[in-house]
Write a structure and sequence with these properties.
By secondary structure, this protein is an all-alpha fold. The chain has a domain of 33 residues. The protein has 2 helices and no strands. The termini are far apart.
Amino acid sequence: MDTDMAAGVDQPESAPADVGGQALDAVGSGREEVLADELSRRVRSGLAG
């Protein structure tokens, strides 16, 4: 998605509808975290150790 925070990131942008759909799926299944793209999943994995 197009945000100020992501302005310097050279990655394809996620479609807002995809992010919204993932967020709704997460709420419906009781998850508290949504990792909407591959970069987010890699960063989260790296932080987890």
